[in-house]
Amino acid sequence: MTDVVVEAERERVIRWMEEGRNVLEFVVKFLSDFDQLKQEAETAEKENEQLRRTCDQLRAEVVQLKADGERSQKERAEIAQWFSTMMSEAASRLLVERRPA
User: How far apart are CA 16 and CA 23, in angstroms?
Assistant: First the structure.
């Protein structure tokens, strides 16, 4: 082999090694980014599941509060009806008691 050929091969090997180092750096960075993204995705999934549970609890609470509100309205209407009836009876008794006087 001539010196020119050896020098060309040497330069080719050096370029190949430099390119290999660049490729390895890229692979290491790619794997590091992948690990970070995987961890972030797992964290997001856990947070999403927590939010779903909280949402389900809040939905159940809203259903319970609506039922409580409807029950309260019904009780209020019944009390108002009872009070109205009592006032009518009281008024009619007072009127009956006043007439003889």
Answer: 10
Q: Mean pLDDT for the chain?
A: 91
At 17, list the tokens.
């090694």
Question: What is the residue-wise DSSP string for 58-75?
Answer: HHHHHHHHHHHHHHHHHH
Name the pTM for this structure.
0.55
**Per-residue confidence (pLDDT) for residue 30, from 0 to 100:** 96
- The one-character DSSP state at 100 is T
Q: Token digits for 45?
A: 């999934």
Residue environment code for 9-35, b if the CB has 16+ CB neighbours within 10 A, otherwise e: eeeeeeeeeeeeeeeeeeeeeeeeeee
Q: Does the CA dihedral 51-56-57-62 come out positive or negative?
A: positive
- Torsion, Cα 52 58 60 64, to 10 degrees, reads 180
The domain locations on the chain are: 1-75
CA 98/CA 92 separation, integer angstroms? 10
